[in-house]
Design brief:
The chain has 575 residues and is mainly beta. The protein has eight helices and 38 strands. Strands 16, 17, 18, 19 and 20 form a five-stranded antiparallel β-sheet that branches. The protein has a four-stranded antiparallel β-sheet with strand order 1-31-30-29, with no helix packed on it. The protein has a four-stranded antiparallel β-sheet with strand order 2-3-4-5.
Amino acid sequence: MKWNKVIILSLIITLSFLMPQFLFSQTKSDLFVDVSNRINFARTNGGAAGAAWFDYNNDGYLDLFIPNGMGNPNGLFRNNGDGTFTDVAKEAGVTNGLGNHGVVAGDIDNDGWADLFMTAMGGVFGITQSATQLYHNNGDGTFSDITSQAGVFTAGVPMSAAFVDINNDGFLDVFVTFTDKSKIRRLYNNKLFLNNGDLTFTDISKSSGVDSPFRGCAVGCSDYNDDGWTDLFVANCNAEPIELFRNNGDLTFTNVTTQAGLSREGFWMAITHGDYDNDGDLDLFSTNLGNSVGGLWPHALYQNNGNGTYTHTGIKAGLVNWEFGWGASFADFDNDGYLDIFFAGSSPAYPLRIIGPGRGCPGRLFMNNGNGTFSMTKSFGLESQYTSGVSVADFDNNGFPDLVIVTSTVLELGKPVLLQNVGNTNSWITVKTVGTQSNRDGVGARVKVMADDFVQMQEVRAGSSVMSMESPWLTFGLGNLQRVDIEVKWPSGLVERFLGQTTKQTVTLVEGTAKDLETNPWDTNSDGEIDILDLVDVASQFGQSGADLSGDINGDGTVDVFDLVIIGEQLGEKK
C-alpha cells in the first residue's frame, strides 16, 4: 500500500501547486468611492445618532436603518442588490417620528427575522426627550411596535444598546447605556433586560450588578477572558473609566475595571473590539476628546494580554493624538489579514464647539502595518459636518467592508456619508452564523479562520461603535489564501470545524452541521483507518453535490479537489 500512498500524495502535491500559494498581499490603495447620493435621507432636529446594517427581508443583502430626530421619519433603506437603496420605512411601519439616537437589530424570538430596538433621544446636550422602541419583524416586510407589552420601556435617555445572550439560553437579551434625563439633568443607571423567550423581558439591572450611573455613551459586548460568557463594556462619556463587567455565568456581573487595567478616565465615546495583532484575543479601541480639547483626553487602544488584563498600546500604535471622535470601527478594509481602524466625529454643542477645520474630525482611516502600529492613510473632509455614528458592512457583497457615517443638520444637510469599498485582488471569506441550540443569529459565537500558521478570530455581535450596529456577518481578509478551515465556538459551548472552505465566497454555517470531529470525518467508510479505500470513496463521488455525502469532507456541499487534498494529507492516520 505504501507505493499507492506515494502516488496519491504526489497527485495531491501536484494539485496543490496549481493553487495560489498562501502569501499575504500588502496592497493598499484608495479603496473608497463616495456613493452618498444613493441614500435619500437627512437627519434633522436630532443631534448625534447611529446606524444599523441588517438583512430585514432575508434576501441576502444587508439593509440600512438610520433613526431621525423628533418630528422626522426614520429611514429603512432596502438594499436592491445592485448597489442602490429604496426607503421602505413607511410601508414597514418604522417611521415613528418620535426621535431616536441609536438602533440595534437582532432576532429576539428566533423566528428567523431580525427585529429592531431603538434608543431614545435627548442625550448629553439635548433639551427634549423621547422613548425607546422595540419593533417585532413580522416576516412580511413590516414591523409591529411591541414596546409596551415587551417591558423594555425606560425613563431617561438611553443612548446605545446591544442584543446579547448573557446566560446562553438561546434568547437575545438587551443591554442599554444611559446618558441622562435631559430636562432635569438627572443621571440614570444602565439597564439589562432578560429575554423571557415569549417576546417579553424582565428588568434585572439591579440584581445583575450592571446598573452604574456614570453616563454611558456606548456599549460593547465581548468575551474578554474566553470563558464562554459574554462580558459587558460601557464607554462612559463623563470623565470616568471604561467599565468592564465580567459575566459570572449566574445572571450576575462583577465590575473588574481596575483589575483589568481600564481605569484610565476619559470622555469615552465609542467601543470597538477586534484582534488587531492576530494573537487570538480581542483588543479594544475607544475614541475620546482627543487633541480637539487641550489634548488631555487622548484616544485609547487596549491590547488584550490574554490573562484577563489589558495594556494601553495606543501611543506606540500611533492612534492617540488625533481629533475628537464619536464612532469607530475595526475592519480589514484592504483584506490583507490585519484589522484596520476608522473613526469620525464632531460636536457643535456649546461650549465645546468641536467642529470645523482644526477642531472636528475629518474621518480618518488608519491602516494596520502588521507590527502593532497603524498609519493614517486617508482623511475624508468631514470636519465641518456633525458626524457621529459609524457602521461597517459589505453592502454590495464584494467581500470588502464599506462604511456609513451618520451626520446631523448643523452646517451641512445631515445626509449620511456612504463610502463604497471597491476592493483589490486580495481574498476574503464572509461567514454567516445560524444558531440552533444557540440564539439563531449566533450572537456571541467566536469564529476562527485558519490556514497553516495563519489564524484570525472575530466575534458575532449586535451593537457596537456608538449608537450603532455593524454587519452581523463576519468578513475576514485573507490576502492570497485560496482555502481555509473555519472553527466556530458557539454560545451553547459546541465547537465545530468546517474544513477546506474556498475563499472569495459567503458561507452560511449552521450550528450542529459540521462533521463530528470525534468520529473522524476523513474515515469515510468507518473502518478505523484513513486509507486508499477512503480516497477511492471520495473520488467515486467527485463532482456530486448535495447533503450527507460521505465524500464531502469539508462540508461545503460539493465533493471536489479540496476534499481529495484533505484525504491525501490524512492517509495512514488511525481513527
